[in-house]
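Translate structure to sequence.
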């Protein structure tokens, strides 16, 4: 397959009346074989999918549309809302120091990739401390680390 990336379309289920604020999310993925793709960016709204997951997707209506998870990567995904936009870079730096990578969506929302080798409990403990202080809020979007599912 080529090294060109494609965007895989995920239809989102509404958890509340206005969340997520979109009906679809498109994730960058690397084609592996016919109909198989490796996810290569952190989801902001899709649940149950993480960076490095292999998914099956079909061509449909001019888009590559997700059909199922084929192989989980072992990475976990968290979502973080930082209430004060001036603290976003500090939060990103601390998460990076803990072994995570982040992507920024709008000014205060982060998608966080926690690789399998990273201590998810340490990451969550730090986030819980910050959440208890009222500086951010976080949620689990896809937990794959052993013992924490």
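Result:
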């Amino acid at each position: 397959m080529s090294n060109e990336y494609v965007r895989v379309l995920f239809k989102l289920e509404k958890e509340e009346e206005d969340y997520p604020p979109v009906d679809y999310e498109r994730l960058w993925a690397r084609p592996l074989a016919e109909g198989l793709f490796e996810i290569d960016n952190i989801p902001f709204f899709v649940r149950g999918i993480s960076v490095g997951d292999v998914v099956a997707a079909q061509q449909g209506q001019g888009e590559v549309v997700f059909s199922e998870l084929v192989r989980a990567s072992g990475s976990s995904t968290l979502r973080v809302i930082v209430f004060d936009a001036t603290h976003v870079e500090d939060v990103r730096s601390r998460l990076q120091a803990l072994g995570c990578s982040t992507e920024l969506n709008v000014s205060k929302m982060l998608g966080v990739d926690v690789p399998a080798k990273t201590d998810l409990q340490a990451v969550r403990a730090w986030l819980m401390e910050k959440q208890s202080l009222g500086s951010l809020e976080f949620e689990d979007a896809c937990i794959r680390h052993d013992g924490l599912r």
